[in-house]
Fold this sequence. Notes:
The longest helix is centred in the N-terminal third of the chain and has 26 residues, at 3-28. This protein has five helices and no strands. It has a single domain, classed as Up-down Bundle (Four Helix Bundle (Hemerythrin (Met), subunit A)). Helix 1 (3-28) packs antiparallel against helix 2, helix 2 runs antiparallel to helix 4 (62-83) and helix 4 (62-83) runs antiparallel to helix 5 (87-107). With 111 residues, it is mostly helical. The protein is elongated. It starts with a helix and ends with a helix.
Amino acid sequence: MPTMMQEHMLANMRDHLASLNMILAKLAAGELDEAAEIAESRLGVSSLESHGASHMAQVMPKEMQQVGTSMHRAASNFALKAQEGEVLPAYGALAEVTAACVACHSAFRVR
């Protein structure tokens, strides 16, 4: 993967981590609708364009693409669960998001 693309991907992942932190803070405050908005806009399927996913996918191994797609879908699913207003199912759905992060970081390195 070209260095410029590595840097882009790492910046995206740092933003994903910051987003997860904001989501957890909103959940702790009982602000599930706000947590859902952050998840969908910054991690969910609707965030793909803003992260440049189409050009990033061209330089990623197929397996990395699949795990990334599963993370984005899980984030959208979390957003839907959070909007339902029940915190425990929302936390369960958020665990699916972080499970994708763990899987990817366990399998791949860029440096």
